[in-house]
């Protein structure tokens, strides 16, 4: 049964919301698209467009979310997931949910499980170090950028600190020598059992879950998750073993006590903000 419409937006209101969303997203897209045209790679700013599957045009496209009627709107302008109403259009919520039932349940269960755990803040960003552990410079993922401490000293930090990563999609990029050093062995099957709300990558992935829930969730929520993921990626790479000072990213020196304290403080702040976004996604799924 289709739920009653919770919100009706007149044409000036929804068009203004769409325009504001497009302008917000364009500020992120323009530099990325310019670099892509010029064949220039950026290890921080381009990550969300290359690691995740959502295309720039999809991020820019505005959706109001489920339960919203757009007055005087044309279904052809919004795509096949929308149906006509007496006064405009609305998302065909039942059809979208029926088509995606399995993935919606999987995402909901992951979000609920993650939200129900305490945040662990003791990893100190060693996952990025484990991705280059015992690798020569020409084999590291971001090979255009040097390691701050060099390969040997980088490996020594990993050996000293250990690795405490609970996130499968980070762990799968560890080098072969680094994997046995991790206290856990994350798998895709164990993701619901291990993911926790202090993890930078779990909180970055809220962007992935948001766009996978689109168009059931408002485009503004997808953009909010993107904005948080973008900030998290900045910390992720500032705390990484790479020297990105030439790009304007001073290092968070997690090999020192001061750097670890700085990292944990930022990690805690991200976890608090992610908690709000995770709750918004779960509310939209309800």
Quick rundown:
With 286 residues, the chain is mainly α. The chain is built from 14 helices and four strands. 52% of the residues lie in helices and 5% in strands.
Spell out the key features of this protein.
286 residues, mainly alpha, 4 strands, 5% strand
Gross morphology is globular
Give the integer mean of the pLDDT values. Answer: 94
Helix content: 40-55%
Order of helices and strands: EHHHEHEEHHHHHHHHHH
In the sheet with the most strands, the strands line up as 1-2-4-3
SS summary, helix count: 14
Over all CA atoms, what is the radius of gyration?
21 Å
The number of strands is 4
The SS-based structural class is mainly alpha
Distance separating the two termini:
14 Å
Largest sheet: 4 strands, mixed
The proportion of residues in beta strands is under 5%
Stretches where pLDDT is under 50 for at least 5 consecutive residues are none
